[in-house]
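Dear support,

I submitted the protein below through the web form. The confirmation email said the job was done, but the results page showed an empty box. After a refresh the structure appeared. I'm attaching both so you can tell me whether what I see now is the final result or a partial one.
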Amino acid sequence: MNQEGLRKDWDTYFMDIAYMVSTRSQCSRRHVGSVLVQGKKLLGTAYNGAPMGVPDCSEAGCMIVEEYELKQTEGQEEMVKKQRCIRTIHAEQNLLLFTDRIDREGSTVYVTDQPCWTCANMLANSGVKEIVYHRGYPKDSEKVQQLMQHKGLLFRCLSGYQPPEQTLMNVIS
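What the results page shows now:
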Protein backbone atom coordinates (compact mmCIF):
# COMPACT_ATOMS: atom_id res chain seq x y z
CA MET A 1 0.00 0.00 0.00
CA ASN A 2 1.14 3.56 -0.55
CA GLN A 3 1.67 6.16 2.18
CA GLU A 4 -2.02 6.93 2.48
CA GLY A 5 -2.81 3.21 2.68
CA LEU A 6 -5.52 3.56 0.02
CA ARG A 7 -3.86 2.08 -3.04
CA LYS A 8 -1.54 -0.83 -3.68
CA ASP A 9 1.82 -0.12 -5.26
CA TRP A 10 2.19 -1.22 -8.90
CA ASP A 11 4.27 -4.32 -8.12
CA THR A 12 1.65 -5.58 -5.68
CA TYR A 13 -1.19 -4.73 -8.06
CA PHE A 14 0.31 -6.63 -11.02
CA MET A 15 1.50 -9.58 -8.91
CA ASP A 16 -2.02 -9.85 -7.45
CA ILE A 17 -3.32 -10.10 -11.01
CA ALA A 18 -0.73 -12.79 -11.84
CA TYR A 19 -1.90 -14.81 -8.83
CA MET A 20 -5.55 -14.39 -9.84
CA VAL A 21 -4.65 -15.58 -13.36
CA SER A 22 -2.94 -18.63 -11.82
CA THR A 23 -6.29 -19.82 -10.43
CA ARG A 24 -7.27 -20.82 -14.00
CA SER A 25 -4.56 -23.50 -14.02
CA GLN A 26 -5.63 -27.13 -13.67
CA CYS A 27 -2.13 -28.32 -12.76
CA SER A 28 -2.09 -30.31 -9.53
CA ARG A 29 1.61 -29.59 -8.93
CA ARG A 30 1.81 -25.81 -9.29
CA HIS A 31 -0.50 -22.97 -10.36
CA VAL A 32 1.50 -20.30 -12.19
CA GLY A 33 0.22 -17.04 -13.63
CA SER A 34 1.98 -14.35 -15.62
CA VAL A 35 1.13 -10.89 -16.88
CA LEU A 36 2.75 -8.61 -19.45
CA VAL A 37 2.91 -4.93 -18.56
CA GLN A 38 4.11 -1.97 -20.62
CA GLY A 39 4.47 1.04 -18.33
CA LYS A 40 1.35 0.68 -16.22
CA LYS A 41 -0.75 -0.88 -18.97
CA LEU A 42 -1.70 -4.57 -18.77
CA LEU A 43 -1.16 -6.17 -22.21
CA GLY A 44 -1.71 -9.88 -21.59
CA THR A 45 -2.17 -12.69 -19.10
CA ALA A 46 -1.46 -16.43 -19.17
CA TYR A 47 -1.33 -19.48 -16.92
CA ASN A 48 0.20 -22.95 -17.10
CA GLY A 49 -1.75 -25.85 -18.58
CA ALA A 50 -2.17 -28.29 -21.43
CA PRO A 51 -2.57 -26.99 -24.98
CA MET A 52 -6.08 -25.78 -25.82
CA GLY A 53 -8.45 -28.63 -26.61
CA VAL A 54 -6.17 -31.27 -25.06
CA PRO A 55 -7.05 -33.00 -21.77
CA ASP A 56 -5.12 -31.40 -18.92
CA CYS A 57 -3.43 -33.03 -15.95
CA SER A 58 -6.62 -33.00 -13.86
CA GLU A 59 -8.33 -35.07 -16.59
CA ALA A 60 -5.53 -37.23 -17.95
CA GLY A 61 -2.89 -37.17 -15.21
CA CYS A 62 0.56 -35.62 -15.22
CA MET A 63 3.16 -36.73 -17.76
CA ILE A 64 6.19 -36.76 -15.48
CA VAL A 65 9.66 -37.29 -16.93
CA GLU A 66 12.90 -37.56 -15.02
CA GLU A 67 15.99 -35.73 -16.16
CA TYR A 68 19.53 -35.68 -14.83
CA GLU A 69 21.71 -32.60 -14.76
CA LEU A 70 25.42 -32.39 -14.01
CA LYS A 71 25.92 -29.64 -11.45
CA GLN A 72 29.18 -28.09 -10.22
CA THR A 73 29.23 -27.35 -6.49
CA GLU A 74 32.44 -26.11 -4.88
CA GLY A 75 34.57 -27.86 -7.49
CA GLN A 76 32.67 -31.13 -7.17
CA GLU A 77 30.49 -32.58 -9.91
CA GLU A 78 27.15 -33.91 -8.78
CA MET A 79 24.36 -35.57 -10.76
CA VAL A 80 21.00 -34.03 -9.81
CA LYS A 81 17.69 -35.73 -10.64
CA LYS A 82 14.82 -33.45 -11.67
CA GLN A 83 11.19 -34.25 -12.43
CA ARG A 84 8.91 -32.22 -14.65
CA CYS A 85 5.54 -32.53 -16.31
CA ILE A 86 5.70 -32.41 -20.10
CA ARG A 87 1.91 -32.12 -20.60
CA THR A 88 1.92 -28.54 -19.38
CA ILE A 89 2.84 -25.39 -21.29
CA HIS A 90 4.30 -22.96 -18.75
CA ALA A 91 2.61 -19.64 -18.03
CA GLU A 92 5.54 -17.66 -19.44
CA GLN A 93 5.47 -19.71 -22.66
CA ASN A 94 1.72 -19.14 -23.07
CA LEU A 95 2.26 -15.42 -22.44
CA LEU A 96 4.82 -15.28 -25.22
CA LEU A 97 2.59 -17.29 -27.56
CA PHE A 98 -0.40 -15.01 -27.07
CA THR A 99 1.27 -11.57 -27.12
CA ASP A 100 2.98 -9.66 -29.90
CA ARG A 101 6.72 -9.03 -29.99
CA ILE A 102 6.16 -5.30 -30.51
CA ASP A 103 4.17 -5.16 -27.24
CA ARG A 104 6.89 -7.03 -25.37
CA GLU A 105 9.73 -4.66 -26.36
CA GLY A 106 10.85 -2.92 -23.14
CA SER A 107 8.02 -4.43 -21.09
CA THR A 108 7.85 -6.15 -17.71
CA VAL A 109 6.64 -9.68 -16.99
CA TYR A 110 5.16 -10.41 -13.58
CA VAL A 111 5.10 -14.13 -12.84
CA THR A 112 4.07 -15.91 -9.66
CA ASP A 113 7.11 -18.21 -9.78
CA GLN A 114 10.72 -17.73 -10.80
CA PRO A 115 11.03 -18.95 -14.40
CA CYS A 116 12.56 -22.34 -15.11
CA TRP A 117 15.60 -22.54 -17.38
CA THR A 118 13.57 -22.99 -20.59
CA CYS A 119 11.22 -20.11 -19.81
CA ALA A 120 14.14 -17.90 -18.76
CA ASN A 121 15.81 -18.52 -22.13
CA MET A 122 12.59 -17.68 -23.97
CA LEU A 123 12.02 -14.52 -21.92
CA ALA A 124 15.64 -13.47 -22.48
CA ASN A 125 14.96 -13.43 -26.24
CA SER A 126 11.42 -12.00 -26.06
CA GLY A 127 12.16 -8.28 -25.85
CA VAL A 128 11.18 -7.83 -22.19
CA LYS A 129 13.44 -5.70 -20.02
CA GLU A 130 12.33 -6.89 -16.58
CA ILE A 131 11.02 -10.04 -14.90
CA VAL A 132 9.42 -9.82 -11.46
CA TYR A 133 8.55 -13.01 -9.57
CA HIS A 134 7.42 -14.03 -6.11
CA ARG A 135 8.12 -17.70 -5.37
CA GLY A 136 11.55 -19.13 -6.02
CA TYR A 137 12.26 -22.17 -8.20
CA PRO A 138 15.36 -23.72 -6.60
CA LYS A 139 15.94 -26.33 -9.34
CA ASP A 140 17.12 -23.69 -11.83
CA SER A 141 17.59 -20.59 -9.68
CA GLU A 142 21.34 -20.11 -9.86
CA LYS A 143 21.74 -20.57 -13.61
CA VAL A 144 18.63 -18.48 -14.36
CA GLN A 145 20.00 -15.60 -12.26
CA GLN A 146 23.32 -15.85 -14.12
CA LEU A 147 21.53 -15.75 -17.47
CA MET A 148 19.52 -12.66 -16.51
CA GLN A 149 22.65 -10.89 -15.29
CA HIS A 150 24.51 -11.79 -18.48
CA LYS A 151 21.61 -10.50 -20.63
CA GLY A 152 21.33 -7.32 -18.56
CA LEU A 153 17.68 -7.95 -17.70
CA LEU A 154 16.22 -6.67 -14.46
CA PHE A 155 15.33 -9.77 -12.47
CA ARG A 156 13.85 -9.37 -9.05
CA CYS A 157 11.92 -11.22 -6.40
CA LEU A 158 9.07 -9.61 -4.45
CA SER A 159 10.16 -11.28 -1.21
CA GLY A 160 7.83 -9.40 1.17
CA TYR A 161 4.79 -9.82 -1.05
CA GLN A 162 1.65 -11.58 0.27
CA PRO A 163 -0.60 -13.15 -2.41
CA PRO A 164 -4.38 -12.83 -2.18
CA GLU A 165 -5.67 -15.54 0.17
CA GLN A 166 -8.05 -17.13 -2.38
CA THR A 167 -5.17 -17.78 -4.82
CA LEU A 168 -2.98 -19.94 -2.56
CA MET A 169 -2.33 -23.63 -3.17
CA ASN A 170 0.15 -26.19 -1.90
CA VAL A 171 3.08 -26.27 -4.30
CA ILE A 172 4.75 -29.58 -5.14
CA SER A 173 8.45 -29.12 -5.87
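Response: this is the final, complete result; the empty box was a page-load delay. The chain has a mean pLDDT of 91.
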